[in-house]
Design goal:
The chain is built from five helices and no strands. With about 120 residues, it is mainly α. The relative contact order is 0.13.
Length: about 120
């Protein structure tokens, strides 16, 4: 009887597990990425996208406002991707582009995982 239990344990331990998947971004990581991207957007896009800027464009601020911590919440998935393309201009340092890319990827993944 004892060997039967051990056999069951060994079979259970040897059973193949499903392939590991990358864990989704944690909420705190997403918040951190969003804030980093907001700061970069404020520097690069704030003249049009900041509600506090004298040169703000009302339609631009409707899409996103760099003064809001949830600055990208009104953006569609397509607008997020478009913002990423705009950050891809030749004058953008690679490290900034990498941070914005990480944010956009995490935001889109989070939106996809929402109920």
């Amino acid at each position: 009887m004892q060997s039967g239990r051990w056999s069951a344990v060994l079979v259970a331990l040897a059973w193949p597990l499903p392939p590991a998947q990358a864990p989704p971004s944690t909420p705190s990581k997403l918040v951190q990425l969003r804030e980093e991207a907001r700061q970069l957007a404020a520097r690069r896009c704030g003249s049009c996208h900041s509600s506090k800027s004298p040169s703000a464009k009302p339609r631009a601020v409707q899409i996103f406002d760099t003064e809001r911590t949830d600055w990208s919440s009104r953006m569609s998935d397509a607008q997020l991707r478009k913002a990423l393309q705009r950050f891809g201009a030749p004058s953008i340092p690679p490290d900034e582009l990498q941070r914005v890319t990480a944010y956009v990827d995490a935001e889109l993944a989070d939106r996809q995982n929402r109920p």
